[in-house]
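Put briefly, the fold is written as integer tokens. The lines below illustrate.
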Amino acid sequence: MDDKPAIRTLLDFRFPLARREHAKSGVLSGYPKNHPVAKQNGPRTLTLPTPGMIAGKILEVEIGPMQAIVYQRYGSPDVLELEDIPIPTPAEGQVLIRVHAASVNPYDWHFLRGTPSFIRLFIGMRRPKFPRLGADVAGVVEAVGAKAARFKPGDAVFGTAKGSFAEYACAAASQLALKPQEISFEQGACLPIAGVTALQGLRDKGKVQTEQTVLINGAAGGVGTFAVQIAKSFGARVTACAAPEMSSFCGRSEQTK
């Protein structure tokens, strides 16, 4: 698989991951799926208010349960459940995404476990305030909220969305970018957290320059994989460190330009 388009996309990425927004999403209301009225009237739709109009057309999205991974208490993966829940409504500055791919990060593990303990001050002391996991996402825009006109329904996007382990997720428009045709949804969903972490470390903090030598510890990991290729794209000489069994993988990554 050629990762060069994905790396070029990452180098041009502009969403401010460090300023992740946590706006609360509304919930669509309506009759339950098996309600007699719902059966009689067919698929239910929600018309967004006037601020959600794009090019004079009011957006409509089908409502009804979506499947999502949820958790009501901290613990091992055994606490995760696949449940039917309402599709969220994009708030101001948000878009609703039909999820095509999502990736898993240590970030999600910390939220699942509720560790280190201090993060519970922000995510819930005894149980999670927001019962859905997932951040990295790639998919297609289904509906657009007010002040998010840079995107339109049908746009293929990638970035971060709170609760991306689901069929639909709402994301702040500032946390998304258009997905180039050269990369798949799966590749796009792998870029945001790991890729931006590597990019910020090398470009913004390390200020890596051509002909400098860069040592990357853990080069076979999520961040390390991107760091090796980004450093090479900057013209740096890379020394990659990883477990012995991953040496051949690191060799292939180190040669990527």
About this structure: The CA atoms of residues 157 and 235 lie 29 Å apart. The longest helix spans residues 192-205.
